[in-house]
Write a structure and sequence with these properties.
- By secondary structure, this protein is an alpha/beta fold.
- It has two domains: 75 residues, DNA polymerase, domain 1 (Orthogonal Bundle); 174 residues, 3-Layer(aba) Sandwich (Rossmann fold), CATH 3.40.50.
- It is built from 14 helices and nine strands.
- A nine-stranded mixed β-sheet has the order 1-2-6-5-4-3-7-8-9, with helices on both faces.
- Helix 13 links the parallel strand 8 and strand 9.
- The longest helix is centred in the middle third of the chain and has 16 residues.
- The N and C termini lie far apart (50 Å).
């Protein structure tokens, strides 16, 4: 029987959401089984163990995958305006495809599609910004939005909130990358902001829609923030602040890092490490030399 698109979606999603299967293992499986997803899910333990990188634990996990349940979940999420993208989908963000740790699946809700946002720039920073940093963030996000750039951030309080708000106030596009599922928006105080973002931008996550936030997911989402973006701007951060993860991931992904010459320890560490310094009165000068 010929597979329908929905069946194909379910096979893709079921495999991509398997906790132990990362991008490298998935690639090995596809190569071994000639790009046939059904063959992977139908394979015996002995057949799976012949694949490079697949041990008994992963083989057992694959054997336990239920595409029927995945199809039902997908239908339920779509009924709540959440779509799932896998690396097999054309709509999967091109900017993420080359990453060694690209998420095998993404959940997305909103009007915009990340793969169309070629001019995306990340703005991140502390949850407790100084008055100057908050002002710089709002102004920068508004100016970028008016230039047609999509502003990417993490929906956290402080700088992230100002970045999303600035882009929205300029009728621009913004993408919020969550460290929780889309049905369990974190922080709760920004649920209304997430709803506003869906109206003209997108809210995305690699976590299952019902999952809550935890430290591991909050850190991991930073690689998606930087991965979607041409560059990362750390407006203000302490040296041990969460925004510094975005800067580290950006460097690993060969994305340029920008900051302002503010007294915060993270800003000074970034400048010492070679980050480009933006002018407070005209930050776009440096950014559009990319």
């Amino acid at each position: 029987m010929k597979r329908t698109e929905r069946q194909l979606d379910a096979h893709c999603l079921a495999l991509c959401l398997s906790p132990s299967i990362g991008a490298k293992t998935l690639d090995s499986l596809l190569q071994h089984f000639d790009q046939d997803l059904e063959a992977i899910l139908a394979a015996s333990t002995a057949q799976l163990l012949k694949v490079r990188g697949v041990g008994r634990a992963i083989a057992r996990e694959i054997r336990g995958i239920n595409p029927v349940r995945a199809a039902a979940d997908l239908e339920r999420w779509r009924g709540q305006d959440i779509d799932a993208l896998t690396a097999f989908d054309r709509a999967y963000p091109q900017a993420l495809r080359g990453l060694a740790d690209a998420p095998p699946a993404l959940f997305i809700s909103g009007q915009a599609q990340p793969e169309n946002m070629a001019e995306a720039l990340a703005i991140v920073g502390t949850r407790q910004p100084s008055a100057e940093a908050r002002f710089l963030t709002l102004q920068l996000a508004m100016k970028l939005a008016r230039k047609g750039c999509a502003v990417v951030s993490g929906l956290a309080l402080g700088v992230d909130t100002a970045a999303h708000t600035g882009a929205l106030s300029a009728q621009g596009r913004t993408i919020a990358v969550l460290g929780s599922g889309l049905l369990n928006v974190y922080p709760e105080a920004n649920r209304a902001l997430a709803a506003r973002i869906r109206g003209s931008g997108a809210v995305i996550s690699e976590a299952l829609p019902e999952w809550g936030a935890n430290a591991q997911r909050l850190v991991a989402r930073n690689r998606i923030i930087s991965g979607l973006s041409r560059a990362v701007i750390v407006v203000e951060s302490h040296v041990d602040g969460g925004a510094m993860y975005s800067a580290r991931f950006a460097r690993e992904q060969w994305r340029p890092v920008f900051t302002f010459d503010l007294p915060a320890s993270g800003n000074q560490a970034l400048i010492k490490g070679g980050a480009c310094v933006l002018k407070r009165d005209n930050p776009l000068d440096g950014l559009f030399c990319l």
